[in-house]
């Protein structure tokens, strides 16, 4: 839910730095309000993921004309977001989950789903 709007925007426009951070921050306000912001470290991990995604946009410069960069951004953004979430949630909870597949597989699957979303949103390069 966080990545899809970003991919739609990046496909069409060159976003200014901080756009994804603002979008991710707005996206965590409701869950934060529902818990009276008791899970602040976890919420801040998504804000940090927004900053990381902004840095990825600056580094990769994804666009409709740069299909490989667009796909790489889609996969890496999801991978980084869920890796940060697992790390911060584990630190806040006192340790990694007992099942290694959870803390290794969840970010990997998220990255693959992000890549699949990127391929769905931009299946072929635009001809000009």
Explain what this protein looks like in three dimensions.
- There is one protein chain.
- With 128 residues, this protein is mainly α.
- It is built from 5 helices and no strands.
- The relative contact order is 0.16.
- The model has no long low-confidence stretch (mean pLDDT 88).
Give the C-alpha Rg. 15 Å
The strand count comes to 0
Based on Cα principal axes, name the global outline. globular
Instruction: Give the averaged pLDDT, no decimals.
Output: 88
Low-pLDDT runs of 5+ residues are none
How big a fraction of the residues is strand? under 5%
Order of helices and strands: HHHHH
The major sheet is characterized as:
none
The chain-level structural class is: mainly alpha
Count of helix runs: 5
State the helicity in percent bands. Answer: over 70%
* Termini separation: 30 Å
Give the SSE map.
Layout: H1 3-12, H2 19-34, H3 40-60, H4 67-93, H5 100-121
Helix pairs in contact: 1-4, 1-5, 2-3, 3-4, 4-5
